[in-house]
């Protein structure tokens, strides 16, 4: 079981590392389309579980794993689990790119569940 888990983790790390060196698009393995960076405003109109890439600033912590993210179109909460930080320290002055998926909890609660991020 440990060997299978380690292989899965290495695959994820390789995928994220390969993307980290690219421009503003990412290969979406679920449908082989190129993903483009979207805005917070666009995220608000997307369906639950939609994959997203957003760029902006983490303004502040808003709960245990919750953070307020801002781009030029507005703010949204991000759920960032400890393992998704990748050892990074991010300040409100750091411009970051975030990969994740839309998480709709009812009609008014929308956040992005983060899977990876990097400083730009």
Question: What this model shows, in words?
Answer:
By secondary structure, the protein is of the alpha+beta class. It has a single domain, classed as OB fold (Dihydrolipoamide Acetyltransferase, E2P). It is built from two helices and seven strands; from the N terminus they run αββαβββββ. The chain has helices at residues 2-20, 40-44, and strands spanning 25-28, 33-36, 51-61, 66-71, 74-79, 95-105, 109-119. The chain has a five-stranded mixed beta barrel with strand order 3-4-5-7-6. A hairpin with a 4-residue loop joins strand 3 (51-61) and strand 4 (66-71). The protein is globular and about 30 Å long.
CATH-defined architecture:
Beta Barrel
CATH top level is Mainly Beta
CATH topology: OB fold (Dihydrolipoamide Acetyltransferase, E2P)
Low-pLDDT stretches: 1-32
Helix fraction? 10-25%
Order of helices and strands: HEEHEEEEE
Number of helices: 2
CATH superfamily placement: Bacterial OB-fold
Mean pLDDT: 79
| Beta strands, count | 7
Short description:
The protein is an alpha+beta fold and 120 residues long.
